[in-house]
User: Fold these one by one.
Assistant:
Number 1:
Amino acid sequence: MKIRKGFVSNSSSSSFCLYAACIELEEFYALAEKLGAPVHLIESEREGESLELSYEIKLPKGFECTVDCGEEPSYYIIGRTYESLKDDETGAEFKQSVVNFLKEHGIESKPKFILREIYI
């Protein structure tokens, strides 16, 4: 029998792993504009009225974007989920696809593995 000490919750949670870069808000807004996001959504998010922009940008298959509001100022995390690794793709190719995407869009942040937990 295991005894857990500390905080125990009955809420459900799910976690996912990304190979991604953390980018500043203005850098994300520029990326969103390049990827064809509606300008009114970019302005709405700049003004703090919405956090819907990450759902509206068109990313390559397997890429994810999420906002991290845990720190001030908030920032975006953009990259690929580990689950998007293809059967014939090596780990190096997986990582390089993220690096290539970031470079192609002028993002200088270096990607790293990030574990995120979502509480439901």
Note: DSSP finds four helices and four strands in the chain.
Number 2:
Amino acid sequence: MDERRIFRNSPKPEGYIITAQGQHFYFRMLFPLKWRIQNPDYLERLKIPKLVADETHNQQLNAIVDWPGVCFKLSNIHHPTLVILGTDCVFAVPVNSALIAKRIQGAKLVQIEDGGHGLMFQYPETISKTVNDFLSP
């Protein structure tokens, strides 16, 4: 199945007003629906751009789908590495983060419960603490 078709034909969440194709894609990829419903003022609080042009959306989508990846190079990383991901991320699914961490010797994997691809906006304190703890001697 063509992954580009999956993204382009995805249904819009109930009660979510979309003014452009790109906006729907952008917010859906960053924040899980459950979190958006629980945080209805997130756009105002986070100062997130409210519109992505359809042309930009299509360029980003094509880049994502057509990118060949670099998993075969991960074993070449020989430095402390933190792999962090939200458990509700629909863009980079959690099972992939486990595979990434496994291919990097000594990598530390942290999965943030209920986090989406924009988990740094959802849980800034948790992310800051996680990164600071990782970087501390």
Note: The beta strands are 82-86, 108-112.
